[in-house]
Prior knowledge:
Layout: H1 8-19, H2 26-49, E1 53-54, E2 57-58, H3 60-64, H4 66-84, H5 90-112, H6 121-146, H7 151-178, H8 181-184, H9 190-193, H10 199-207, H11 210-220, H12 227-239, H13 242-261, H14 268-281
Antiparallel strand pairs: 1-2
Amino acid sequence: FQTNGKRIRPALLLLCSKLLGYKGKEHILMSTLVEAIHTASLIHDDIIDNSKIRRGKESIHARWGPNITVLLGDYLYIKALGLSLQSKHRQIIQILTSISARMVEGELTEYYLSGNLELAEKDYLDIINKKTASLFSASCRIGGILGKASKKEENYLAEYGANLGMSFQIIDDLLDFTGDEKTLGKPILCDLSEGRITLPLIYTLNNDGRENKKRVIELLKQKNQDRESLEEILKIVKSNGALDYTHKKAEEFSHKSREIISQFPKSAQQEALSLLSEFILKR
């Protein structure tokens, strides 16, 4: 499961198309393409973050170096967009093209703000909206287009996917502080050690007492953070309500996604999409 990834994005596309009674076969190709785009983004992520582990195994970047890896990521993006030209729906081609650019924009913004201890919550939410939620939303919208959704239904599905994606990424960032290496497929505090400022840390820096805030900043500014320093940061984050706050934020997005999908008639697909919102919170 962890080694192969969760494949949530293609599952969303398939479920949303079937939710509206789609009978064709194009959803198979399109679901493959959104997963290829997602994989390309992960490959580029690992280069930028210098990540050694991905899904419990050595990353492509660690094994082959940045030159081959960046070309592979580029190839997947280009191949996915090229194959999308087979679609009979011009709108789907436009969505996949624009969403790829939006994801790269999010990556560029995150890189620019990496290590910025003054990162605001709204900036963090904007980054994860572009990097993660946008592809969730696009997957659902494409499923709706294939199923000949009305514009209202299409927008509902896109909004459902966006909120689901926000919840997913916030929980993913939370697990960096609360999970274990075996489950995550990467070391805990990996985001922290790579300079990625996520919601638990943003909350800590804005809501903890002066002494704890000062200490966290001192530890984060160390050039070579050892395990002991990271564990001290983790202890402070766990003591001030940051983890509860982060989980509640994920719950807000999850609840909104369930409200939106409840607008559709009851069916196996509608129930699956609703349950997926709950599952993400319980990872």
